[in-house]
Design goal:
Belongs to the AB hydrolase superfamily. AB hydrolase 4 family. The protein is α/β, with parallel strands linked by helices. Helices cover about 45% and strands about 10% of the residues. It contains 16 helices and 9 strands. The chain has a 9-stranded mixed sheet with strand order 1-9-8-7-6-4-5-3-2, with helices on both faces. About 0% of the residues have low confidence.
Length: about 450
Amino acid sequence: MAIPEIEVGAIAPEMPAMFDGMKLAAVATILYVIVRCLNLKSPTASPDLTYQDTPLNRFLLKSCSLLTREYIPPLLWGKSGHLQTALYGKMGRVNSPHPHGQRKYLAMQDGATATFDLFEPLADHPTGDDVTMVICPGIGNHSEKHYIRTFVDHSQKQGYRCAVLNHLGALPNIELTSPRMFTYGCTWEFAAMVGYIRRTFPQTQLIVVGFSLGGNIVCKFLGENRANQEGVLCCVSVCQGYSALRAQETFLQWDHCRRFYNFLMTDNMKKIILSHRRILFSGSSDKVTDADMSRLFTATSLNQIDDSIMRKFHGYSSLKEYYEKESCVHYIHNVDVPLLLVNSADDPLVHESLLTIPRTLAEKKPNVIFALTLHGGHLGFFEGAVLVPQPLTWMDKVIVSYANAICQWEKEKATCQGGNASEGENCTAGATEALLEHTV
């Protein structure tokens, strides 16, 4: 009996120390994983800007100071592009407002019915002018989404009328009236909305805004026909991918969980398509076969849905043709109005290789500013101190601030040109210097 007592006595003091070491190692491992997953060691920074040195761009960057100031996301989770994206997608915005508007219905030539929501301004515009934001949401989105409601409410309070396109088939309570729904780059419905605004408010000036897929649509709309740029003061595109053809391979990769996001969006697209199956796949539609329907049910990527269903709404013979013709990369160089392109470096949906497109464009065209934030995810851009984000995001404020600066620039230019100056160039130059001095 004495021998085991001596052995236990010798081992017992060492056991707690061993367990303490294991606990310490487990805690350290968990903390390391948290720090890596939340990207807590990543610094905050101002957006990386690409632009040409022109009087207008200098004025815009001084007036819209958010583009040159440090963007600070919430400390505990805001540096994770995945959490920024997830919170935008699932929780929307904090204390999301409920702006009140009127729903408009527009009959299209092919029998489809486009809808958009019109929201009147809640204050006078700073310039005293009539200015309308024409807004195109992201894939499968509409005016009732939280991020759209928050942006519209903020814009209304700054004196902007807002017109928000509801993508064809996206609203759950609106039936389709023809065997067609929205596609990656179809501009028909957006053009119809813009046409309505121009006819109804002939004196208004337009600010064009697109989010994600909507960014592709608005840039393609402006670039495919220069007449579409008449009356447009500027365009802002946020978190788009520019080229579906280049993006399709990256969207099947697992890095940054891109393949997982692809699967989630595919599942959402399935639900939208199947909710309209009676119209889309009725006997009057000969574009989609039973085999296509089978491929729809088993699809695990957007590419598969695009190939079997979406491209056929417009008669494209192949997926490659569909992506080439529907991507704004082939049209965006025709856009001559001031163009702000915004992306986030930690956007899990947009591969970094796609960002050479806006960067190269901004290097070549004087009307383009490309802003790349270090954080923000996909349409997140939350701001805040530690945990709870602010109701308004950096994205909301930047778009309105940029639009305000453009309106101020155009107002001063119009005042100058409307005077009795015999030399317009000298007048414009003088107004430019005055504006730049005013913002210093």
